[in-house]
Write a structure and sequence with these properties.
alpha/beta; 2 domains; ABC transporter transmembrane region fold; six-stranded mixed β-sheet; 12 strands
Length: 570
């Protein structure tokens, strides 16, 4: 087994789906075309107005109009490219994140709360502006600021000192405001994570809360968390607004300062009126990329926090290595376990210290043990859901961790106490969203009477299920749907973990008859308190003090089949 396996991090900027050369060339063209208006203004005030009979005004105006139209078109094209690249990157990375999370080592992934995990997934959407080429275009525009400044020095001489001073002060204050914004963002994210965790856990145990009469207590606790989250969001909004307002204020300060100083220089004859107007336009061009850079700097504070969250998701080690090469494995239900052990998540002790087992095709093992002995964890390790801390599990002669997930379900079926229903139609849940053949699904559904009961629903197999307790299908039918999905691939190893609980009489009878039909044809490990199901076994093993001990069948014989009970035993 190879815990700690990692994939290449998709957050590397090299993987961004964007044509950077095209964006940079477009940005260069936009900035060069933006020089047309200041240059035209200089010519208009200093040459054309003093000599109106020259006849060059119409030509100059036509050239400026063409340049402005081209600049607008290029900006629209660039904006569309950035939006498309951002959406493509977000989609690809979100899919990679979900795939990585599904294949991650769940024993480590579940250390954090559900709210934190949701926050990590949501953080990907905040990163797209830093992977779609926006940063490159802004940096390219900022690189033109020295060119604009040099042109202002060439045109207006000493007047260029004014925008230089304003830009320097603006940059220093922006950096300071950005640090304050980062602190506010950290506090906000921490408050949101705690609130989401509490909310999800409280809603998940809402029936217990009602039974204990603890509604008011939990409401007060949530109000406190909501207040802290609201204050944190308010502080972030205030810091962001202060940063953006500062950009607007400095833009006005820039124009007012240049006009005031320029007017004095014009009165003293040091510069011309055309030079003054051209410098005002150039100072505005210098402020635009810096304002965009300031917005980017503000987002960068959130970006660093979001990237840390996203990286923590991709840093989770995978639970399974890549499947080992080899010929297809024959399905016969053989199970061999050697020196298997499972430690506590915090490493404080062992859930299962040692387990050795050898089942051949057709064996039916009754697994016993007290509450918390590790029976369910044992089955989950065999099913490949959790990796073992030590030892090896072989199914049909191959290590369970060497199977692809879509191949493993053809060899082993894990039927838990309460089957999982996903949001989707009944057909989606039965076919695992199209991964299983409908012919196989209908065959097993017929054995469990699922097709007949589904036909009575208003929309039949297209009935929408939410995966919650508000679905119109009864719990017994939900359980049988999950069992059909597990058995449809026709695996030869069946793990049955008290899946008869909560079934009505008809559902119990159908499940029992199916297990009896599988006896001798498939290898089974059965955990159940029902005597009829226990009587299907030909071997018995029990967990005692962390060790799996097999006992003789004669020492643990139950009553024979007998008559089926009226209601499924729980």
């Amino acid at each position: 087994m190879m815990n700690g396996l990692k994939r290449q991090n998709p957050l590397d900027p090299t993987g961004a789906p964007v044509a950077l050369p095209d964006l940079i060339l477009g940005t260069l063209a936009i900035n060069i075309l933006s020089l047309a208006l200041p240059v035209m203004t200089l010519q208009l005030y200093d040459r054309i107005l003093p000599n109106p009979e020259s006849g060059t005004l119409p030509v100059l105006l036509a050239g400026v109009c063409i340049a402005m139209i081209l600049e607008t078109v290029l900006r629209l094209i660039r904006g569309r490219m950035l939006l498309w690249a951002g959406a493509a990157w977000e989609h690809t990375t979100s899919c990679d994140a979900m795939d990585h999370y599904i294949h991650a080592d769940l024993s480590l992934a579940m250390h954090d709360g559900v709210g934190i995990q949701l926050g990590r997934m949501a953080s990907i959407g905040k990163l797209k502006d830093f992977y779609n080429g926006t940063v490159a275009t802004i940096l390219c525009e900022i690189a033109f600021v020295p060119l604009f400044l040099g042109l202002a020095i060439y045109i207006a001489g000493p007047l260029a000192v004014v925008p230089v001073v304003v830009l320097m002060v603006f940059t220093v204050l922006s950096l300071a405001k950005g640090q304050a914004l980062r602190r506010s963002l950290c506090i906000r994210d921490d408050a949101d994570d705690k609130r989401y965790d509490f909310l999800i856990e409280a809603l998940g145990g809402v029936h217990t809360l009602k039974a204990l009469g603890a509604e008011k207590f939990f409401s007060r606790r949530y109000e406190g968390m909501e207040e802290a989250s609201t204050r944190a969001h308010y502080n972030v909004s205030m810091s962001t607004a202060a940063l953006f307002n500062m950009g607007t204020v400095f833009s006005h300060i820039m124009v007012a300062s240049v006009i005031t100083a320029g007017a004095l220089l014009v009165l003293h004859g040091q510069i011309t009126s055309g030079a003054l107007v051209a410098t005002v336009l150039l100072s505005g061009r210098m402020m635009q990329p810096l304002q965009r850079g300031m917005v980017l700097w503000a987002r960068f504070q959130d970006y660093k926090l979001s990237r840390e969250k996203a990286e923590s998701l991709f840093d989770m080690p995978l639970s399974m290595p890549m499947p080992a090469p080899g010929e297809p494995v024959l399905k016969d239900g053989r199970l061999k376990i050697r020196d298997l052990g499972l430690s506590q998540a915090d490493g404080s002790g062992w859930i299962i210290e040692t387990a050795n087992l050898d089942l051949k095709h057709g064996d039916a093992l009754i697994l016993q043990g007290g509450r918390g002995a590790g029976k369910t964890a044992f089955l989950e390790m065999i099913a490949g859901i959790y990796p073992a801390s030590c030892g090896e599990i072989s199914i049909d002669g191959r290590n369970v961790q060497h199977f692809k997930p879509e191949t493993l379900i053809e060899h082993v079926a894990y039927i838990p106490t309460e089957g999982i229903i996903f949001r989707g139609t009944v057909r989606d849940n039965l076919t695992a969203f199209g991964q299983l053949s409908e012919d196989r699904v209908r065959e097993v559904a017929g054995l469990l009477g699922v097709d007949r009961d589904i036909a009575r629903l208003p929309a039949g197999f297209d009935t929408l299920l939410t995966g919650t307790g508000v679905d119109m299908v009864p719990p017994g039918l939900r359980q049988r749907i999950a069992i059909v999905r597990a058995l449809a691939p026709k695996p030869r190893l069946v793990l049955f973990d008290n899946a008869d609980r909560g079934l009505d009489r008809e559902g119990y009878n159908l499940i029992y008859r199916l297990l009896a039909r599988l006896k001798g044809k498939a290898t089974m490990i059965l955990i159940s308190e029902d005597r009829n199901i226990r009587s299907l076994g030909n071997r018995v093993a029990r967990f005692e003090h962390g060790a799996l001990i097999e006992t003789a069948m004669a020492d643990a014989r139950w009553s024979a089949f007998g008559e089926l009970p009226a209601v499924g035993a729980a």
